[in-house]
Each structure stands twice: as C-alpha cells, then as structure tokens.
Specification:
Length: about 500
C-alpha cells in the first residue's frame, strides 16, 4: 500500500521498497504450526488444570472444551479471515460490521491481551529450564536471563515472518516428540482408575476455567497476518483444521500418560511438573528432553504471539486506524514499530504473577471475542452477499445457534474474574475510548500523518470485500476479475 499523508503528498518510507529483501509468503504447514503456537505449543502450562480440578475434570475439560469453544472460534476465523484476507484480522472484521471506533477498541483489547500473554513465555521458559540449570530459578541471574531472552526472541521476530514460520515447524516437532516417547513408555504403568479421580468440593473453578480457556483460545490471532499468507482463502481453513487436531492430541496424550502412570499428588501438579513426570517414566534423559522442549516451546509461543501482535499494529497503520508510522516495515518486511511496542510491553508486564496474567489477558480477550461473535452474526445478516471463499456451512439461524455456547462460556469466564482484574480491564477500556477521539482530532488537524485508504470506487459502502480487492490488487485486471466474479455471485443469489 502506498503511504500517503492527509494532504495528499507521497511520503518516503524509512527503507525504500527496492531495499526490502524478497519475502516468501507463509504456506499451509508453517501457518498451521504458527496457529498451533498461538493457541498451545504443547502441554506446558496445563498442569494447573490437574491441581485445581483433578485428573477427571482436566481430561474432560480438554476433551469437551474444544467442541464448545475452539472449533466454533476456528470456524469463525476461517470464514472471516478468508473474506478479509489482509493484515489486521479481527480489527478489519469489526470495522466492517460496526465501524472504525469499535474496530479500534477491538484492536486495543486484543493487542493488550496478546502482549500480556506474551509476558508469560520468557517466565515459563526459565521455569522449565531451571530443571536443567538451577541457577536461573531466582535472583539477579533470573532477571538478567529474562531480559536477554526477551530481547533475543524479539530480534529473531524482526528478522522475518517466514523464518519464524519454519522455526515453528521445527520447534513443534522437537517439543512434541518427547511426549510421544513418554506416552509409549507409560503404557505398561497405566491404571485407568487414576483418570477417574474427582473431588468437586475442592475444585478451584477460577483457576481451572482460566487455565482451560487460556490453553484453548487465540485461534483468531493468526488472522492479523493474513496479508502475509500464500493463498489465504485455501490455506487458512486447512491450517486451522489441522491445528485443532494437533492441539487436542498435544494436551490429551501427555495428561493421560502423566495422570494414569503415576500416583496422584495434586500439590505437585504445577508449572514445570511434566519434567518430573518424564523423570519418573523415562529417566533423566527424558526429563532433560522435556525440560529443553518446554523451554523451546515457550520460545515458539513468544515468536508466534509477537508476530500476531506486531502485524496487527501494522494492519491498523495500513488501514489508517493508527498513525502511518505503524505501517512501516524493516528491510525484512517486518513491522518496525509493532515489534518495538510489543517487545516493550512484554518487558514491562513480566513481573506479574502467572495466574494474575492469565486472568487479566483472558478478561480482555473475552471483551474482544464478544465483538467478534457479534460481527460474525451481524455480517451474515447485513452482508449476505459478502464474498466468503470459505463459508461455515450453516444458515443464519445455524450460526446463531453455534455461537450461543461460546458466548455463555465467555460470560462465565468473565464472572470468575477478581475485582482487581475487572477494574484493571475497565481502566484499559477507558484508555481506548479516550485515545480514539484524540487520534481523530489530531488527524483532522494534520498533527499526525495517517495512511490515506482508497474508497470503494463507487461500490456500496458495506461491500467491503470488493473494496479490499481493489485496494490490495496491483493488477487492475485481477481486480476487475474479482469484481466480476462478485457480481455473478450476487446475481446467482438474487435468482
């Protein structure tokens, strides 16, 4: 997209296009593993579900929860990401449905939730690595390592999204293999009755639900970099479908092995306990492998979340929702300011406690998801002829019905939040409500330069997908072809 100021004059980017290195777009396999890392990254972090709910509730949670939450969210993401295949993802969807004000709020809630989420991974990286190197468990050494890890991973993200995608494939395979070995070695020791242990009177529902929700959400995050995906109309549905299966098995198999092969000790099931499980089942070598895999998996989680957060800001800059400087890229094609802002937020928030982080990010994420489900239904009603390369195979009533269970779950998770979380989230929302009109004021007076986005060139205002086609296609013949296809689709539906 050409950078244009509000007075119509072209602006020179900090790095001219001919100096930006050629970047390959993401294909289906790297996209699948990026989605896997956006959502899961493996069973690391699920231990609290056993401690708070017991083996039976934990297993049922990771078996049933995906059908109530993960699959509906993945289906919605597949439909809307292919209808609006550009950077910014859910921000674009909400803007198309409810206007730029709510699009901005969606972006603010989801970006803040993502940055808070990303603050967990350097901490979890060290929590598992301490089983191999005890010196990183506390004190100045731990603080120094946290800063070094954050800076190093942020720089790696800066070097290019394609590199991050293929690194996610390698990390995913390496991180899941030890659990396949552990599950195989655990078979002779399994006692199925251990899976049935439950004590409903002692369940910590707040921790249990927040742990489940955190480990099975963020399916929509990869949509923010849809503009960097090769053939997103086909790649997104395939990648999401395979990622759902991969995430479910990556949780259930280790939990079945760990809870079925060892005598239950609820107090021991906390962050990093899978290293002890591996030690008991396979010995020191398997424990070392799990610990290193967990550390590297958290590096993959960091990279995937950083990519999503930074490309979201880039997309908002390209669409004129944030100042134009957010749309600028490095010579590697990565968002310069998006990475700086996201990395800084991680450093500032890494001092929060694990469960505090999960509860706050879940609450902010829920606010954004309420808007996403509303936009999904609203666009089905108000824009029935919107070009949807992938369409959830249900009519309007059907999509309303599949949205009800996730919406009930969202409200339930929000009611479990502490007053501290509610107040913090409300204050963050007030900031977003105030910043947007301030930016509009500054934009009108040309105090800050924003990208000037072409209008729909005579198309109906709500016909957003056609507008995107015109905006993104460099070849006018290709744009004309897409618009002709859209016209034929409209005529067929009218007939």
């Amino acid at each position: 997209m050409t950078n244009v100021s509000d007075n119509g004059k072209s602006l020179e980017p900090p790095i001219s296009p001919d100096k930006i290195l050629p970047q390959r777009k993401l294909s289906t396999i790297p996209l699948m593993f990026l989605i896997f890392y956006e959502v899961s990254g493996g069973p690391f972090g699920v231990e609290d579900s056993v401690q708070s709910g017991g083996p039976l509730l934990a297993l049922l949670g990771f078996l049933i929860f995906p059908f109530i939450w993960s699959i509906p969210e993945a289906l919605i993401t597949a439909e809307l990401a292919t209808a609006f295949p550009e950077n910014g993802g859910y921000v674009v969807w909400i803007s198309a449905a409810f206007g730029p004000f709510w699009g901005f709020q969606e972006g603010w809630w989801k970006w803040l939730s993502g940055v808070i989420d990303n603050a967990l991974y350097p901490v979890l990286f060290l929590d598992y690595l301490k089983w191999v190197f005890p010196s990183v468990s506390g004190g100045p050494t731990r603080l120094a390592c946290l800063l070094i890890i954050t800076v190093a991973l942020t720089y790696f993200n800066y070097r290019g999204l394609t590199i991050v995608g293929y690194a996610a494939v390698a990390l995913g395979i390496f991180s899941l293999l030890p659990f396949c070995v552990m599950a195989f070695l655990a078979i002779p020791r399994l006692k199925p009755e251990r899976w049935l242990v439950i004590n409903l009177e002692n369940v910590d529902w707040r921790v249990f639900m927040n742990t489940l929700f955190w480990n099975l959400n963020y399916w929509d995050s990869a949509s923010t970099l849809a503009g960097e995906v090769e053939n997103p109309q086909k790649s997104f549905p395939k990648a999401l479908g395979f990622a759902v299966l991969l995430v479910m098995f990556s949780y259930l198999i280790p939990l079945l092995a760990g809870t079925g092969a060892l005598k239950l000790d609820l107090a021991a099931w906390n962050d990093g306990y899978f290293a002890d499980v591996a030690m008991a089942i396979g010995g020191p070598l398997l424990k070392w492998w799990v610990a290193v895999a967990a550390a590297l998996s958290n590096a993959g989680l960091f990279e995937a979340e950083m990519s999503s957060d930074s490309f979201q800001l880039l997309g908002m800059g390209e669409s004129g929702m944030l100042p134009q400087i957010f749309a600028r890229r490095s010579k590697f094609g990565t968002p310069i300011l998006g990475i700086i802002f996201s990395g800084t937020g991680v450093v500032l928030l890494s001092w929060l406690r694990f469960q505090e982080i999960i509860e706050i990010l879940n609450f902010l994420y829920c606010l954004g998801m309420l808007l996403e489900f509303a936009a999904f239904i609203w666009l089905r009603i108000k824009q029935p002829t919107l070009l949807r390369p992938y369409r959830v195979p249900l009519n309007t009533l059907g999509v309303v019905l599949i949205s009800i269970p996730p919406l009930i779950l969202i409200v339930f998770v929000m009611t479990l939040a502490s007053w501290k979380t509610v107040i913090f989230s409300l204050l963050c929302s007030v900031v977003g409500f105030l910043v947007y009109p301030c930016m509009i004021y500054a934009k009108e007076r040309k105090w800050i330069m924003f990208a000037k986005v072409p209008d729909s060139q005579g198309l109906p205002v709500m016909d957003v997908s056609a507008s995107i086609a015109i905006r993104n296609e460099d070849d006018s013949d290709a744009a004309d072809s897409l618009l002709l296809e859209r016209t034929l689709v409209n005529e067929e539906e009218i007939d």
